[in-house]
Design a protein that fits this description.
Pfam families: Redoxin. It is found in: Cell envelope. The protein is an alpha+beta fold. It has a single domain, classed as Glutaredoxin (3-Layer(aba) Sandwich), CATH 3.40.30.10. Helix content is about 40%, strand content about 20%. It has seven helices and seven strands; from the N terminus they run ααααβββαβαβββα. A four-stranded mixed β-sheet has the order 4-3-6-7, with helices on one face. Strand 1 and strand 2 form a beta hairpin.
Length: about 200
């Protein structure tokens, strides 16, 4: 026991780092916190791309049948979202990167939820939707809770969480980002504002 005390006194920083590392490995919220700190630097963020040829409809056609269901069972069809800027986020409650970026998704939602030209589709992919709903309630998030009402087109989601897509008013994919990001920054709001100012 005395040897352990001596070792700890001589190696206190190593012991503290080891304990912190173990906590981060086993605790989802601790992992999310660490990822949030990295994401807040902005180095992981993507920018909204410039519009391509407006005659190119192949991407729009590839997700035309994409449908979601909200909490009361109402089906939302992607074709009903014409002339809107659409923020789509695929997430799950068990996913640390999703947890890391969700406060910024909530902040973005609060910034634009009353804008009639913007729609938020936050799509939960938990095997049991109750887990996703519980997570939102526990954290006080008010973003729309949606689940897939059919297959998710590969052009939107390839299996990596979180995945975020932004469609412009013409339905063109202007952002497709896989992995954690920070959507709560003024620089990102300016990009959204530019999309909202574009004509359909």
């Amino acid at each position: 026991m005395e040897n352990l005390k001596i070792w700890l006194r001589n190696n206190i920083s190593t012991a503290i780092l080891t304990v912190l590392f173990i906590i981060i490995l086993v605790n989802k919220d601790a992992k999310a916190w660490l990822m949030r700190q990295v994401a807040s630097t902005g180095i992981l963020n993507s920018s909204i791309a410039e519009s391509k040829d407006s005659q190119n409809t192949s991407a729009k056609e590839s997700y035309a049948g994409f449908m979601l269901k909200n909490e009361d069972g109402t089906v939302v069809n992607s074709t009903d979202l014409q002339n809107k800027v659409v923020f789509i986020n695929f997430w799950a409650s068990w996913c640390p990167p999703c947890r890391a970026e969700f406060p910024s998704v909530q902040k973005l939602y609060e910034q634009y939820k009353n804008n009639p030209d913007m729609v938020f589709l936050t799509v939960n992919l938990d095997d049991n939707a109750v887990l996703g709903k519980s997570y939102l309630k526990e954290k006080g998030f008010t973003v729309p809770f949606l689940v897939p009402a059919g297959n998710i087109p590969a052009v939107l989601y390839n299996g990596s969480l979180p995945t975020t897509i932004i469609l412009d008013k013409k339905g063109e994919i202007r952002l497709h980002h896989t992995g954690v990001a920070d959507y709560g920054k003024q620089s990102f709001y300016r990009q959204i504002d530019q999309l909202l100012d574009e004509k359909p």
